[in-house]
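Can't paste images in this forum, so I'm doing it all in text. The chain is below; anyone willing to post the predicted structure tokens underneath?
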Amino acid sequence: MKKLLVEEKIIIGFILCIVCLGILLPKGKANSFQFKPGDILISKSTAPGVSGKGIVGHAGIVIDSKTVLHIAGPNKKPSKISITEWLSQSKNPSTKVIRSKNATLGTKVAQKAKDNFLNKNIPYDLNFTPNPTNIKKTYCSELVWYSYYKAGFEYKKPSTLSMGGGVFKTVWQRPSIIKPYDFLNNSALPYNNFHIVKTFNW
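Text version of the structure:
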């Protein structure tokens, strides 16, 4: 009888350990994945005060293995937060990570992001000015696009051009406005040599 009680205690202790680990280690935990400079983070969450303005989602750029640079919304300036905070339930738990297949580009992009936005007094552009090279004001996905642009790479968007007679042609060009979900476009990803490398709770 005494032996049975000891076995029961072992089993109960084991079950409690599993339950605790399940609570402390949520699905898609960030430290099980290696973020790299230049990674683009796109979330389902939209910055407060932006919904209804024709933009869905939020974007940020990884500047080192633990840090994201972004602009959080109206009345905010570009700032950095930890990746752990970005993925928290109160921020952006549903996130996709997009990465350039050019292995040397990411580090340069991260540096350009820091040079042009970190600690800069650039206000949020709630009107989404149709020129992503103008950063007197900026918004989240423009901050990402511009960092790549300054590193010598332009992420282009597809547009459908009518050739007449019911014939249409897809052309690739600089966007006038770049939205977060434009970085998830199924045709733009391969065209721009990007791919999705991780999905968290999407």
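The beta strands are 40-43, 58-64, 67-70, 79-82, 95-100, 157-164, 167-173, 194-200. Confidence is low (pLDDT under 50) at residues 16-28.
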